[in-house]
């Protein structure tokens, strides 16, 4: 019994948990959920490893713990109360995502203070300095090549997809490209040298920046598709660093052909599901 009492006293004076006096129920908190801290003994603080955003004071201000990363919930100010403090180069502010500011689900998250993109020696563009620091934590040899994005030939992040549709329908091909300097995107149909839309009134092309920085989204839209629209369409992106292309096949069918195609597709899908169910047994 005497040994047990000594062990409990040792816990309560932070011998095992150096920065906090455990409250009732052994949950580490006192009334109202606040941390109840005991005497600070820095020599007994646990070692924090793998902290990609550096170290911050814990809730008792005695030991150091891993700072929160970009996008993680956080406690505003300089007191670690519940979620924790943001790491190096980050500040706690209202979530800049779709739900905030002013949204019902608005919460405060860690946001990088330096939002300028950085080019790494690995040829990767990091959208801000915090993302670069996270990468450099795992790759100690990584350095910054310079401020701003890396100059790179276009990369097609989302290529256009093959489609089968009926005559008279409307359809869209999408092509998303990353590049710096910003790429120019052109659409062509195989067998024709004309850059679309040309003078064809039922074909249009639209482009805009995004969804991410240094990306460009381009759409080829065909209104009232005709049988003659069947073919292979190429999305080509180019800048002064190079070019890249991706292709998609469009097959426009008559009403009866489309009905037969859809019926066969449903039958094939049902067969695949039956085969899958049999494999489970």
TrEMBL record:
Tell me if Secreted is a UniProt keyword of this record. yes
Keywords in UniProt for this one?
Disulfide bond, Immunoglobulin domain, Protease inhibitor, Secreted, Serine protease inhibitor, Signal
Keyword Disulfide bond in the entry? The reply is yes
Q: Which residues are in the IGFBP N-terminal domain?
A: 33-113
Q: Where does the record place the Ig-like domain?
A: 154-251
Q: Which SUPFAM superfamilies does the record cross-reference, listed alphabetically? A: Growth factor receptor domain (SSF57184), Immunoglobulin (SSF48726), Kazal-type serine protease inhibitors (SSF100895)
Q: Name one GO molecular function term.
A: serine-type endopeptidase inhibitor activity
User: Which processes are annotated in GO (biological process)?
Assistant: regulation of cell growth; regulation of signal transduction
Q: Where is the Kazal-like domain?
A: 104-152
Any Gene Ontology CC annotation: extracellular space
Q: How far does the signal peptide extend, from start to end residue?
A: 1-16
Q: Which InterPro entries match?
A: Growth_fac_rcpt_cys_sf (IPR009030), Ig-like_dom (IPR007110), Ig-like_dom_sf (IPR036179), Ig-like_fold (IPR013783), Ig_I-set (IPR013098), Ig_sub (IPR003599), Ig_sub2 (IPR003598), IGFBP-like (IPR000867)
**Where does this polypeptide localize?**
Secreted
User: Which Pfam families does the entry mention?
Assistant: I-set (PF07679), IGFBP (PF00219), Kazal_2 (PF07648)
SMART domains for the chain:
IB (SM00121), IG (SM00409), IGc2 (SM00408), KAZAL (SM00280)
Protein name per the record: Kazal-type serine protease inhibitor domain-containing protein 1
Gene name, per UniProt, is: LOC106527820
């Amino acid at each position: 019994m005497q040994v047990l009492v000594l062990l409990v006293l040792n816990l309560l004076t932070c011998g095992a948990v150096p920065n906090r006096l455990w409250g009732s129920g052994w949950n580490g908190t006192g009334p109202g959920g606040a941390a109840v801290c005991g005497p600070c003994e820095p020599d007994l603080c646990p070692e924090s490893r793998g902290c990609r955003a550096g170290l911050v004071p814990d809730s008792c201000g005695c030991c150091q713990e891993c700072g929160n990363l970009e996008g993680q919930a956080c406690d505003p100010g300089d007191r670690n109360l519940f979620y924790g403090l943001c790491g190096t180069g980050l500040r706690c502010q209202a979530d800049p995502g779709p739900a905030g500011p002013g949204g019902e689900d608005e919460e405060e998250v860690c946001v990088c203070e330096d939002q300028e993109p950085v080019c790494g020696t690995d040829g990767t563009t990091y959208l801000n300095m915090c993302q670069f620091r996270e990468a450099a934590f795992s790759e100690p040899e990584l350095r910054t090549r310079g401020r701003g994005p890396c100059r790179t030939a276009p990369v097609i992040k989302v290529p256009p997809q093959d489609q089968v549709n009926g005559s008279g329908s409307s359809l869209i091909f999408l092509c998303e490209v990353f590049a710096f300097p910003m790429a120019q995107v052109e659409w062509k149909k195989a067998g024709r040298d004309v850059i679309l839309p040309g003078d064809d009134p039922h074909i249009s092309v639209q482009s805009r920046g995004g969804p991410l920085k240094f990306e460009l989204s381009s759409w080829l839209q065909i209104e009232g598709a005709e049988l003659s629209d069947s073919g292979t369409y190429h999305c080509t992106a180019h800048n002064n660093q190079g070019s890249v292309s991706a292709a998609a096949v469009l097959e426009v069918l008559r009403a009866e052909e489309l009905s037969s195609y859809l019926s066969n597709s449903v039958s094939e899908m049902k067969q695949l599901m039956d085969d899958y169910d049999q494999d489970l047994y």
